[in-house]
Amino acid sequence: MSLEVAPDLLAAAERGEIDDAAFAETVRRSLPYAWSTVAAVAADLQTSLDDFADNQVPPPDEQARGQLLRALASDSIRGVLERHFGVRLAFQNCHRVAAFRPDSVGGLAYREFVSPRAQIRNQSPELRNC
After folding, report:
1. Could you tell me where the DSSP H helices lie in 47-100?
2. Which of 118 and 67 is assigned the larger pLDDT?
C-alpha cells in the first residue's frame, strides 16, 4: 500500500528534507484507518492514568489491516506518528496497537507488552493468518 504523495511534496523530497507536518498529513490522507486507530489510542492515553492505552479491535477488512501494517512496519511512518501524537507505539497481532507515554518506555507495562510471552499469549486461531 503506497502513500499518496502530492507532487509538490515529492519535489521537496527530491530537493532535500521535508518537514514532519507535511509527512504527517500525507500519512493521514493515505492511511486513514491507521491514522484514526493511532489517534484513538493516543487520545485514550491522554485521558488515562495508565502507562498505555491500546486497541484490541481487529480492522474491519483487509484494506484497513494493510494500512495498519504499512504504518507500523515503516520506521519513518511509525516515527512521524509517534512524534505527531507524542507517544511511543507498540504493535502485536496485526491489529493491537498500543500508545505508551514516552517516559514509561522501559517500564514494566512496556516490557510486558513487547515481550515474546505477551505475543504468544495474544495468539488465537483467527489471527494466525495475519
Report:
1. 62-73, 75-85
2. 67
